[in-house]
Design a protein that fits this description.
- The chain is α+β, with helices and mostly antiparallel strands.
- The chain is built from 19 helices and 23 strands.
- The strands form six sheets. A seven-stranded mixed sheet has the order 19-20-18-17-21-22-23, with helices on both faces. It has a six-stranded mixed sheet with strand order 3-2-1-6-16-15, sandwiched between helices. It has a three-stranded antiparallel sheet with strand order 4-5-9, with no helix packed on it.
- A hairpin with a 4-residue loop joins strand 12 and strand 13.
- The longest helix has 27 residues.
- The protein starts with a strand and ends with a helix.
């Protein structure tokens, strides 16, 4: 088998990476050639993304790939979901591109729910209620901006458009917008009409692994990349990560651990009923029209915000130091409900954690070590609660959990998770989204015959750590978290 080369542009909500994937004799190797920060910016009173800067960083990465002079077959972008880019008819970007944590999302959510009952929205889309969703962000849009816009694209699909000139929305990303109907497999005309959104904004939806065409001639000239196809692989990074899991069989769940935690299972059809709505589960589409039944819950964002606050106070702790301090702190002194709305917004996160502990009559953590331990233990226990809900909805008994994403580097949280869930936890690969992105490209070009073969390639290419649980003490702690979450 000859060696083939691909590019994955993996755009995260904290950093972006341009990665070269090499496939040879059933083995995949990933090489990160460019990494860059992706931080929100303030535009007047709004929180936004610096899309032009991020795109320039992608071009820098592509030029670095070209320096290797490997014959690149294709490239594709994946990114976080819910945020979107608006384009004029001539292809120019309408700024700003709003950040999902911008305060306008709450206003938009109220606007939408005043027009359409929540039960109708869920029945139509199967997507959980979160103010950050594309649907609610559009509820806050100004009619002047929407009137000016010719095309709405997700971040990943927008970047694929800028690279290829083809404006399409890949299905895994379309399904996260809360404007897609997973039963009819198309945009929800009911919601688009009810909210008086211009239907012209919504592009053609294409399957995962759709070739979009060659790299635009001007981009090819700028980057020195020739004969490269742009492919819509799985535009949503979680869909890409799940495609890149080393999974086999059925009784497994996944946890995409990073800024957000996304926990779920792969099922053949959407599960949209009263139970899934009341438990706030979401149905997103994966490779081959599989369904990721999952819940988007709090993640390492809370830790990231703590670190940022401490750095502003001239106490700049890196993640390794924070984890060491947490490991050295006493267990289960205090717990939080990571899903409490106060932890969604930016700000002085240590004070928010302390306030929650004080309000709930617990020991108030003062130093970084106990604060970080409180957050990590609480996340692990929330994962246990979520897994229990998954088993209720699906009727499956989950026997192992696959953890992927940047959070796999947090060994303490991984061990806490195994202990809390009381099942084996399989760690890695860290770059599952990039692996899935590359392998879906390979399937699109008929270099890999099936998803089963792609997952076998992952198992054969990356070493995985398996953590066995130690149960003692975690059940009592779980009972405490249950009371915090349920408000008892």
């Amino acid at each position: 088998m000859k060696t083939t080369y691909y590019i994955a542009c993996d755009l995260g909500a904290e950093s972006g990476r341009v990665i070269e994937g090499t496939l040879n004799n059933g083995k995949l190797a990933l090489s990160e050639l460019h990494r860059f920060s992706n931080q929100p910016i303030k535009d007047k009173d709004s929180l936004c993304w610096n899309i032009p800067q991020v795109f320039q960083e992608v071009l820098v990465g592509l030029r670095k790939v070209a320096e290797h002079q490997d014959p690149i077959a294709s490239l594709s972008c994946d990114s976080w979901g819910v945020d979107y880019m608006l384009f004029e008819a001539d292809g120019s970007l309408i700024t700003p591109t709003y950040h999902y944590r911008d305060a306008r999302s709450q206003t938009g959510m109220k606007e939408v729910l005043d027009k359409v009952p929540w039960e109708t929205i869920y029945a139509e889309t199967g997507i959980q209620k979160m103010p950050i969703n594309t649907l609610f962000q559009l509820g806050a849009e100004k009619s002047k901006r929407l009137g000016k816009a010719h095309q709405l694209l997700s971040v990943a699909d927008g970047f694929n458009y800028l690279l290829s000139g083809a404006a399409k929305m890949e299905v895994s990303m379309a399904s996260t917008t809360q404007l897609y109907n997973p039963v009819t497999k198309n945009w929800s005309d009911k919601l688009i009409h009810a909210l008086k959104l211009p239907s012209k904004l919504f592009p053609q939806i294409v399957p995962s692994g759709t070739p979009l065409g060659p790299l635009r001639a001007d981009i090819a000239q700028q980057t020195k990349l020739e004969d490269v196809q742009v492919i819509a692989s799985c535009s949503h990074d979680t869909a890409a990560a799940v495609a890149g899991l080393p999974a086999s069989g059925q009784n497994w769940a996944f946890l995409s651990s990073g800024t957000w935690s996304l926990m779920g299972v792969e099922v053949p059809e959407p599960i949209i009923n009263d139970a899934s709505r009341e438990l706030n589960f979401t149905n997103e589409i994966g490779y081959g029209n599989s369904v990721r039944l999952l819940k988007n819950i709090a993640g390492l964002w809370i830790i990231q915000e703590c670190r940022r606050h401490w750095a502003e106070k001239e106490q700049d702790l890196d993640y390794d130091v924070m984890t060491h301090l947490a490991a050295s702190s006493p267990p289960f002194e205090s717990l939080i409900n990571p899903s409490d709305p106060r932890f969604l917004e930016p700000g002085d996160m240590p004070s928010k954690i302390q306030a929650f502990c004080k309000e709930t009559g617990q020991l108030v953590p003062r130093k970084p070590g106990p604060i970080v331990r409180c957050v990590l233990e609480s996340l692990a226990l929330l994962y246990r609660r979520t897994l229990g809900d998954i088993e209720k909805i699906t009727g499956r008994k989950i026997e192992r959990l696959h953890i992927v994403g940047g959070g796999t580097k947090n060994s303490l949280l991984n061990h806490f998770t195994a202990n809390a869930l009381q099942i084996p936890v399989v760690i890695g690969p860290t770059e599952a989204a990039a692996a899935g992105n590359v392998l879906v490209q390979a399937m699109a070009l008929n270099h890999v015959p099936s998803l089963e073969e792609a997952r076998k390639i992952v198992r054969d290419s990356f070493s995985m750590e398996i953590i066995q649980p130690h149960v003692a003490a975690w059940s009592a702690a779980y009972d405490r978290l249950e009371k915090l979450v349920s408000g008892a």
